[in-house]
Amino acid sequence: MKRPSSAFQSCAASNNHGSLSARDALTPLCLGLFALSLTGCIEGESPEETPAIEIEERENSEASAIVGIEEGRVSITQQEQPGGSLLRASADGPRETRGSGARFGTWAQQDFEDNWQTELTYNWTIASKFNDELDATDQKVFYKNLHDEAKYFTDANDQVYLEDVNLIWISTHGGISNSAARMFMWDEDLRAYSDDLYLGNEGYGLSFFSAYSCNLLADTDHLWDRWSRAFKGGMRMLLGSHGLIYFGYNTRKVGEKFADSLQSSKDAHDAWYDGLHKSLNIDNDAAVVVMGDGEDDCYDRMEGIKWQNYTDYPRRRDGDVNHWLRYRWRNI
Questions:
Q1: Is residue 59 part of a domain?
Q2: With a threshold of 0.85, does the pTM exceed it?
């Protein structure tokens, strides 16, 4: 496996809010893959590369080999489009579950109202294959599209879905401003914002936030501003991309591979690498972030947390969240 580029930064060192005040000040950058050819939907400039304090890199555990190119076209049968589901109010908690019997939920959006964002080809397939794989060992609680769902990405309403599961998968367009990462809804001009989140303190208590979206963990001075509030509720790990990811026939199995590696007791950051790793000539950018109480705590979490043992790592909340660590891989 390629060694990740790693970076540390403390709460105090990353408290730089910059000059942009609006959460929509920067436009998203995201690419779609249609059939076997690349089609761009670039709407704004790529975030400026401003890495945090670089420290010594540590070797990742070995990743398993990835299956190569599949010949020809196959008939895609798993094209389920998620619909609405009943609201699931959670009891007081959080109640910890893990391993077989852990709970997960999925949000995905392939098309967008009045084409206000470019269609993300095969996104229903990506989500369905993720669901089918992880549901073989764990409990799928919901699978939803992103029609008018932004209200559930807030501290006031996160107990309905986000806090009712241990892991979330979301796949949609992504973007950033200085203060927030943004996840795009089906509804025109509607977004969910990371700085509205405070996760891990209710219901089952979300531990893993996995987002197959561009730029949500982008390399700027504002990663702390965008995500520290979400972690301060007790969330354990954030998996996403610091740059570009792709949608299409060649990426239809990224969620399935991620779920399979989770089930195989790999470290969670290695499982994310496996999922986004190029098996079909697609150069995804992958990143994983943890936050904790100091440098050693962050490394312990990054290098130790698995789907089978994450409850062994105590939740860090509020003032005990003061450092962040990011692993990133380019063009994997």
A1: no
A2: no
